[in-house]
Amino acid sequence: MTVPLSSSQTDLAVVIVTWNNAAVIGSALCSLLDDLQDSDLRYEVWVVDSASKDHTAEIVGREFPAVRLLVNSANMGFAAANNLALRELGFGSAERASETPAAVFLLNPDTVTHPGATRRLFDTLMARPKVGVVGARLTFADGSFQHSAFRFPGLRQIWAELLPTAGRLIDGSFNGRYSRACYAGAQAFEVDFTLGATMMLKRAVIKQSGMFDDAFFLYCEEVDWAWRIRKLGWVILCVPTARVTHIGGGSTSQARPDSLIHLWKSRLLLYEKHYPYWKRQLARCLVVAGMRRKRRNLDAVDAEMRAACQKVIEMAKA
């Protein structure tokens, strides 16, 4: 049973940040709006466009007039763009505290929301006082399994990604994965963090923990926020009965070397914020060793990726 709301209060605000997502934003919004209209929730949908060059903002403005559109003149990063919408919703302002929705659903533009998913997420979020964040069960575009939630990254995950590791360990708990059996059941299960592709947060959680850390331009922003939320005592759940197709890589694949640099810049920042000193030092050593190995294994003609690996090495050694 959901928590009662005042008659004037919005149940749910959905925020989608876009960057050159013209090919997928239409299907994302159509499936989301269809699901919301069947949910009996009082909702609003926001799209924050980060200076797309492929007419993403024009498509949203023309084909989805009910969606609230914010268009930035430059790409301010995923975390900052989401925070912009959260501030527009009244978060961070004592004067506008009564305006904030009961929950906020952060959704990627490369998603298709399956019928009933939004309501199941909302009901699970509101059913227990200490549940602060929920996320959906994700599948790839072809319907195949996708890990939707993870344990907080430790040294083993760095090793598994960058250094020789037995295949059976990569898809298991050694690498921060939850068992596929968890996703096969009907019960929501507790996790460290859900992917930011589908992250629904209770209003009280946002007010207590703050918003995304703007220092994360791309990647790891949801891990950092979830880490802070968990430290405050909130529970985070993955909801297998709420299903969302997540294509993945729609924006980041457009700038592969830059994406590698952003990824490891964010991960190093994450380690700096949440690891003790000794663990940070070991993490940096593993990153340097792994990037050197990756650079050696790259084809000589892939000069940009080799340069990106060198940049990550320099960041890790700084």
Question: Your description of this structure?
Answer:
The chain has helices spanning about 25-35, 55-65, 80-90, 115-125, 155-160, 165-170, 180-185, 205-210, 220-230, 255-275, 275-295, 305-315, and strands at about 10-20, 45-50, 70, 105, 110-115, 130-140, 150, 190, 195, 200, 235-245. With about 325 residues, the chain is an alpha/beta fold. The strands form two sheets. Strands 1, 2, 3, 4, 5, 6, 8, 10 and 11 form a nine-stranded mixed β-sheet that branches. Strands 7-9 form a two-stranded antiparallel ribbon. Mean pLDDT is about 95; it is low at about 1-5 and about 250-255.
- Helix fraction? 40-55%
Beta-strand content estimate: 15-25%
What Rg is obtained from the alpha carbons, in whole angstroms?
20 Å
Mean pLDDT over the residues = 93
The count of helical stretches stands at: 12
Beta-strand segment tally: 11
Helix and strand sequence: EHEHEHEEHEEHHHEEEHHEHHH
The shape, in one word, is globular
List keywords for this structure.
single chain, 318 residues, nine-stranded mixed beta sheet, two-stranded antiparallel sheet, 12 helices, 11 strands
